[in-house]
Design a protein that fits this description.
Elements (H helix, E strand, L loop, with lengths): L13 E4 L2 E4 H5 L3 E7 L5 H12 L1 H6 L2 E7 L3 H14 L9 E3 L5 H4 L3 E6 L5 E3 L1 E6 L5 E7 L7 H16 L2 E2 L10 E3 L5 H7 L5 E2 L10 E3 L2
Parallel strand pairs: 3-4, 4-5
Antiparallel strand pairs: 1-2, 1-5, 3-8, 6-7, 8-9, 10-11, 11-13, 12-13
Bound molecules: benzoic acid.
Length: about 220
């Protein structure tokens, strides 16, 4: 995804949403925010994804994370579509805002364009892009999935948890890590520093190199 990527500032665009007009930075405020785009209203995979986001909304709220959807239709269309999303995903209300981008200008500025998918008029559609924005309004992580692959919300929770833990402690999360499992201590932390930073202790893997860079702890 050229342009907007990890470390970049989220542009402070004024957007129209199902919950009214807003500036992106005002919405983010002091929270982490998941900004996720969809190819279009009244499409099958998107209906399951927006419903699943609604089902996970409490989990994201516990993590202090706001949700913000985007699709390339107008607010009226979004509001009609929400009725289908809520009916299909029984009991889960879509309370997060969905941005209307009927002119397809925002998706270009937010680097959410799918290079291959077009609508019946030949206009480019958004991909399944997902940016996690930090409280500093910087992009901390981006996914880019094609229209044909729905996202896994457990993976979104997992990466939010990883980002938040790494922002708080000098740690990283290893392959296939799940929330609650041990994390690794950052390689730029010396053994002496690790003893001070992690009084709960840590285990160092015994490796053929004899180097002690793979250290596991719990945070
Ligand atoms: C869908 O949301 O199901 C979808 C949208 C565009 C292309 C393919 C699938």
């Amino acid at each position: 995804m050229p342009g907007l990527t990890i470390g970049d500032d989220l542009p402070n665009l004024e957007v129209e949403t199902t919950n009214g007009k807003m500036k992106l930075h005002d919405y983010v405020g002091d929270s982490y925010t998941i900004l996720f785009s969809h190819p279009g209203d009244f499409t099958p995979v998107c209906t399951t994804e927006l419903g699943m986001m609604a089902a996970y909304a409490n989990k994201f709220a516990e993590l202090g994370v706001k949700l913000l959807g985007l699709s390339c239709d107008d607010v009226h269309s979004h509001k009609e579509w929400i009725k289908d999303i809520e009916a299909y995903n029984k009991g889960h209300k879509v309370t997060y805002p969905i941005i209307a981008d009927s002119k397809r200008e925002l998706i270009k500025q937010l680097n959410m364009v799918d290079p291959e998918e077009t609508d019946s008029s030949g206009h480019k559609l958004p991909s399944r892009a997902l940016h996690i924005v930090g409280p500093d309004k910087k992009i901390r992580l981006s996914f880019l999935y094609p229209a044909t692959t729905g996202r896994n919300m457990d993976e979104v929770v997992r990466v939010v948890d990883s980002l938040q833990k790494a922002a708080k402690h000098k740690i990283a999360t290893p392959a296939n890590w799940k929330p609650g499992e041990p994390v690794v201590i950052s390689p730029n932390v010396s053994t002496e520093q690790a003893k001070e930073m992690f009084p709960q202790g840590f285990d160092t893997a015994n490796l053929p190199s004899g180097k002690s860079y793979l250290r596991f702890t719990n945070v």
